[in-house]
Structures are given as C-alpha cells and as structure tokens.
Design brief:
The chain has 257 residues and is α+β, with helices and mostly antiparallel strands. The protein has one domain: Alpha-Beta Complex (Maf protein). Helices cover 27% and strands 19% of the residues. The protein contains 6 helices and 8 strands; from the N terminus they run E-H-E-H-E-H-E-H-E-E-E-E-H-H. Strands 1, 2, 3, 4, 5, 6, 7 and 8 form an 8-stranded mixed beta sheet that branches. A hairpin with a 4-residue loop joins strand 7 and strand 8. Helix 5 crosses helix 6.
Length: 257
C-alpha cells in the first residue's frame, strides 16, 4: 500500500475548464439533505459562516483541512494529487473507519461516506464513489465494482471471463463526488464519466480495472495515462474540475485576509 503524500504540484484545477470536456456541472444543495442527519438548518447562510475553516475571529494562517472519505489508498492518492493544487491540507479518513455503502447510486454512496466522515472528524470531507460499467454486461459490475472479487487480479479475471470474446466491449468509468461540511451536511456534488472499451488483456500497471480500460482519446489504457490526462479525461478528474470553483468558495480559498 503506497503511503499517503502530497504529489508534485499539477496545473491548477480552475485552469482545466479550458479543455474540451463536458463534466456534469456541480450541484450546490441550497438546503442540507434531510434524513438520518437531522432536520435542515433554518439559516443556511449562518451555518456556512459557523462552519467556516477560519472560525469566527478572522482568517487562520493554516490552510483549510479536507478529509478524503476513503480507505482506498489508490483513490486517496489520486484525489490528493488533484486537490493539492487548490491549497488544501488533505488528509485520509481515520484508520479503521468502515462505512457501509447501501446506496442505489454512486451519488447516494458518496453522500453516505462524506457526511459520515465529516461528522466523525468535524472537518470538511470529500467522498467519491466510482464504478466500471460494461455495456455488454448490462452495466456490470457497476456499483459492485470493488466487490466483484477479492483482489484486483481476481476482479480483472472475472470481468474477462464474463465478457469472453464478445466484439462489443464498450464501457465507462463513472464517478460521483460529494462535499460535506463539518456539521455533516452534504453541500456540493458533481459527476464525471470517461468512455472507453475493455481490452482482451491488461496493459500497463495500475489499480482496479485501469489496465483493462482503453481510452481512445488518450491512445492508451487508464493505467498508462499520466496525471494530466487523468485530470483531463478521467471520470474523477472531470468531477473534481467541476467541483473546484465552488469548493474554493465554500472553503474560502484564495481570498484576501
């Protein structure tokens, strides 16, 4: 398992909008989600001030903290590399935290994880839920991508076995991201999709299904794509770029003191 660290600075996320991609626009929740998290706040504007990373007495010299709501080291490292450019102190979720993914969509699962980790840590939390959908398999493995088998090697073997030698091998990586404030309320969400196809055998080295997923625009597999192409073409990169401007506003990044 790779250790968590900040990767070298990449191009700022707010410059990525110049690429010819069309990620889903972020959705800011005007009122907090209801349900097990309790009733919506009566004064959302005051709530935002109350949970400001700079507190009630002015700007802190320390960068705001953002906890990545994941125990997946591969995912945490990728998101950390993306978010380093927006001036955050990025942390992984506490050791031993396990959040049951009971949602019926990627967004629902991302909300569950973001709100739970925000409540647990008292910090802003960002959660991602992703999956591989293969058209010839009716969208499988989909929400169960990480649970398709016990290891990456076994997951790849099962996918190739079930797909067989079918000539129609189109697929997509799908990602949903949700930002929760320190009160445990989901306040921002976005989605990204990367289209590709499944190869007959893996190419390159990477986690998950990355070595099997061929991205035509890049001319290589997802595992072979450098960081800047993942930001430009990848499903997480598209979702992160869509979130970046509003995330900066909510965490008051880049404002004068």
């Amino acid at each position: 398992m790779p250790s968590l660290r900040f990767c070298p600075r990449q191009e700022p996320l707010d410059l990525f909008g110049g690429w010819n991609v069309q990620p889903n626009l972020p959705h800011t929740l005007s009122t907090p989600l209801t349900g097990t998290m309790g009733p919506p706040a009566a004064e959302p504007a005051r709530l935002e001030e109350r949970v400001s990373p700079y507190g009630a007495y002015g700007r802190s010299p320390e960068p705001p903290v953002l906890v990545i709501a994941s125990g997946n080291a591969h995912k945490v490292a990728e998101l950390t590399a993306m978010l380093d450019a927006v001036g955050l102190e990025v942390r992984r979720q506490p050791e031993g935290v396990e959040i049951e993914e009971t949602g019926s969509t990627y967004l629902e699962n991302a909300r569950l994880k973001a709100t739970a980790v925000a409540q647990l840590t008292g910090q802003w939390a960002l959660a991602d839920d992703s999956g591989l959908e293969v058209d010839a398999l009716g969208g499988a493995p989909g929400l169960y991508s990480a649970r398709y088998a016990a290891t990456d090697q076994e997951r790849i073997a099962r996918l190739l076995r079930e797909l067989g030698d079918r000539p129609y091998r189109s697929a997509s990586f799908n990602s949903a991201m949700v930002l929760a404030n320190p009160a445990g309320e989901a306040v921002l969400e976005a989605q990204g999709i990367c289209r590709g196809e499944i190869l007959l055998a893996p190419e390159g080295h990477g986690g998950g299904y990355d070595p099997l997923f061929w991205v035509r625009e890049a001319g290589m597999t997802y595992a072979q794509m450098p960081a800047h192409l993942r930001f430009k073409l990848g499903s997480r990169g598209k979702a992160a770029r869509a979130l970046a401007p509003e995330l900066k506003r909510l965490l008051r990044i880049g404002r004068g003191g």
